[in-house]
């Protein structure tokens, strides 16, 4: 009898624990903020570098958080818009442009003695839906794009010192990207891109014009396609001044491969921009990843080696090194389904300098 009463009691307790009410809500568990021992240094990257140290930014972060703005203007001297200078953010309809966010960023840069790198005039993912749906023929397509480039570059003449005219038109093997809007329109897509460089140069003759892509130092096919395009442009009077490698790499990326590919890129003699730097530590995109001292040291070594590599190139080829973000909490890599377990930048979630910052400083010395 006592045993029966005991079992009934257990069942009642279990039933009460499982019973839900209309006020029950799911428990949301946020990823823990990883506490990293702070790096103590009074030196700044901009004090040691004889080139620009940039960061990709969003207007909403600048206006929404004082710590973000203070770190940006205190630690960097050039900015790139992560999104707001792309075509679909500006070109709202055929004859209408929204320059409000670009104006804000340009004014912010001027007020804080920063330069601006424009990103990007042509990118296959940023053509507005209204433009794609119009199904323009080749002549109309180029005519509309020409007006867009002239309008945007001309508006910021003397205020935006450089532009990525084209971004990511090649596959890693050097072929044209099949999803590119320009691939299906033109028999000679590279020729079209060259004319876009000319349109930008006409709108602002003093602006430095770049082609930008990812995995450049790793993918020899892509790198060769970029080099061949640059040679063609130079031989035909197209004003191209530099090449950008986004430098989205990881702690497991071969440093030897990076070194060899980078040397090949520098051999072009053009300005070199490391344009979107970050370094993944959670290389398997694991939702259970835990940041650790070993990976932090590997990341520090990556930033040290990258800074050292760039610092060694001829002075007339140095344009700048741009981080693709400021703090880990805002990195685009946290949108990759890994449970927010990514920490690729120089500053942690509370804007403390990470070992990566110290490594970068060491590489600049």
From TrEMBL:
InterPro entries assigned to the protein according to its UniProt record, in alphabetical order: GH (IPR017853), GH10 (IPR044846), GH10_dom (IPR001000)
Listed Pfam families: Glyco_hydro_10
Key words, A-Z: Carbohydrate metabolism, Glycosidase, Hydrolase, Polysaccharide degradation, Signal, Xylan degradation
The keyword Hydrolase is assigned to this record: yes
MF terms in GO: endo-1,4-beta-xylanase activity
Swiss-Prot/TrEMBL GO biological process terms: xylan catabolic process
Keyword Signal in record: yes
Classification via PROSITE patterns: GH10_2, PROKAR_LIPOPROTEIN
Signal sequence coordinates: none
Protein name, per record: Beta-xylanase
Catalyzed chemical reaction(s): Endohydrolysis of (1->4)-beta-D-xylosidic linkages in xylans
Source species: Pedobacter cryophilus
Lineage: Bacteria, Pseudomonadati, Bacteroidota, Sphingobacteriia, Sphingobacteriales
EC number(s) given by UniProt: 3.2.1.8
Location of the GH10 domain: 42-363
Stated family: Belongs to the glycosyl hydrolase 10 (cellulase F) family.
SMART domains assigned to the protein according to its UniProt record, in alphabetical order: Glyco_10
């Amino acid at each position: 009898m006592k045993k029966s009463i005991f079992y009934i009691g257990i069942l009642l307790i279990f039933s009460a624990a499982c019973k839900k009410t209309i006020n029950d809500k799911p428990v949301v568990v946020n990823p823990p903020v990883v506490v990293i021992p702070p790096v103590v240094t009074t030196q700044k990257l901009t004090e040691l570098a004889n080139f620009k140290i940039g960061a990709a930014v969003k207007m909403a972060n600048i206006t929404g958080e004082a710590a973000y703005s203070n770190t940006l203007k205190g630690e960097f001297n050039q900015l790139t818009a992560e999104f707001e200078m792309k075509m679909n953010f500006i070109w709202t309809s055929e004859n209408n442009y929204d320059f409000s966010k670009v104006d804000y960023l340009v004014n912010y840069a001027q007020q804080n003695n920063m330069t601006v790198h424009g990103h990007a005039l042509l990118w296959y993912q940023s053509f507005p839906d209204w433009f794609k749906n119009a199904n323009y023929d080749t002549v109309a397509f180029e005519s509309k794009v020409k007006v867009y480039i002239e309008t945007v570059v001309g508006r910021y003449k003397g205020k935006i010192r450089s532009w990525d005219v084209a971004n990511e038109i090649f596959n890693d093997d050097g072929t044209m990207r099949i999803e590119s809007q320009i691939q299906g329109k033109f028999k000679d897509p590279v020729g079209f891109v060259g004319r876009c460089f000319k349109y930008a140069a006409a709108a602002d003759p003093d602006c430095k014009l770049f082609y930008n892509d990812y995995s450049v130092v790793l993918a020899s096919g892509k790198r060769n396609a970029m080099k061949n395009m640059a040679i063609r442009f130079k031989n035909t009077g197209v004003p191209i001044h530099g090449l950008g490698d986004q430098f989205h790499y990881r702690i497991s990326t071969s440093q030897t491969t990076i070194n060899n590919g980078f040397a090949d890129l520098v051999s072009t003699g053009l300005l070199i921009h490391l344009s979107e730097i970050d370094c993944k530590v959670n290389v398997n995109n694991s939702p259970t990843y835990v940041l650790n001292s070993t990976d932090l040291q590997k990341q520090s070594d990556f930033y040290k080696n990258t800074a050292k590599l760039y610092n060694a190139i001829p002075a007339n080829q140095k344009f700048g090194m741009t981080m693709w973000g400021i703090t880990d909490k805002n990195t685009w890599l946290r949108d990759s389904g890994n449970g927010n377990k990514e920490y690729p930048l120089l500053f942690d979630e509370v804007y403390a300098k990470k070992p990566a910052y110290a490594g970068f400083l060491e590489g600049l010395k």
